[in-house]
Amino acid sequence: MHGQLFYNQTIIDPLKGERWFCTEQDAQRAGWRKSQVEDIRPTNLQPASVLHVIDGDTIEVDLNGAIERVRYAGIDTPEKGERCAVEAAQRNATLVDTQVMLEPSLEDRDKHGRLVRYVWTQDGRSVDQLLLQEGLARAWYGPGTHRAELIATAEEANALFVGCLFSGLK
After folding, report:
1. Taking residues 42-59, what's their average pLDDT?
2. Residues 6 or more apart whose Cβ sits within 8 Å of residue 139
């Protein structure tokens, strides 16, 4: 299951009662029945139209008629001019396309006045999680709703030297 951490699917190990975050395909390979796969995608998501990708962890959206800058909760990508910044911004643009779903975080706005949200694609994938998994972001280690999942994914990408941020560290 390592390398397949998505928190839109949680698997409950029937033998140990542990929760594992992985894809449905991994659950099937492990021999777990469909009834043991539970969708934990948040129910409090707000739809938003993406107007502009600012960088790897910030977008500008139309949210119910209001133009807002959204800072991704739980992750940090390189700033413009830093190593991997271009790759992170390009991948972010590919993932968010024109529509996203926003999940409130523990912090409503940051010190710059941006909304702080977990960002989901229209098909239910976590953009925060995918950027971490692909080695294009680092996890925040502060409090957060999805803190444990994001930190685990970042640590795995780091350990496997995945992506632009970690590939040169071997």
Report:
1. 94
2. 74, 75, 76, 132, 147, 150, 151, 153, 154, 155
